[in-house]
Amino acid sequence: MTYGEILFRTATSFVALLVLTRLLGKKQVGHLTFFNYVTGITFGSTTAEIIVNRQITLLQGISSLVLWSLLAFIIALTGLYSVKAREILDGQPTILIKKGEILEKALAKQHLNIDDLIMLLRNKDVFSPKEVEFAILEPDGKLSVLRKEELLPATKKDIKATVTPIQRIPTELIIDGKIVEKNLIKMDVSVAWLNQQLKKASIHSLDQVFYAELQLDGTLYIDKYQDSIP
């Protein structure tokens, strides 16, 4: 196999993989289930074989990827309209902790030990099963945790505080010293206003700004290059 042929096969496989992954959707990209995970690995290994294995023609390799994508799409479509198929393909959430009590049988069924569970809890900023009302292992292997009611943080509704409807989400206006023009237009912010906010922060050049973000309350968060951290 010549060097040029390897480059051609690599480029073709890359484009095919990109197109097929986009067609399968974001669920595949995010590896939301075990099936998505296996499909992703198969895509990667098949593409590698197409690139380096001279016994596999490019047409054969691309056909294999297309067929696998078609099968994955059909199965995903089946799961979309059939609850039973969805349960078989994706699995079901499993309760591991209920009202502060660890369900050992459920833990063993998922091939998890207590150390695994404690680690998953710590990743959720929970340091004791006693704090947990429910802990549920999702089909993607992540742990969802609901703390006991008395340990939940108070909301504005709880303390009867005035709630202001959210009109925007935090939006980046400057990245790496460059203004994000499309976001200025989207957020109806002028360059003059932006420069004024920078001057208030004693910043006289965009080169000084690593990142700037418009906050929910309309203020500007600014992170400068070479921050001095004590």
From TrEMBL:
The chain crosses the membrane at residues 6-25, 32-52, 58-83. InterPro entries: DUF421 (IPR007353), UPF0702_alpha/beta_dom_sf (IPR023090), YetF_N (IPR048454). It comes from the Bacteria. Residues 83-214 form the YetF C-terminal domain. It is a multi-pass membrane protein. One of its GO terms (cellular component) is plasma membrane. It holds the Pfam family DUF421. The keyword Ligase does not apply. It is found in: Cell membrane. Its main location: membrane. Residues 4-76 form the YetF-like N-terminal transmembrane domain. Keywords: Cell membrane, Membrane, Transmembrane, Transmembrane helix. Belongs to the UPF0702 family. This is DUF421 domain-containing protein. It comes from Paenibacillus terrae (strain HPL-003).
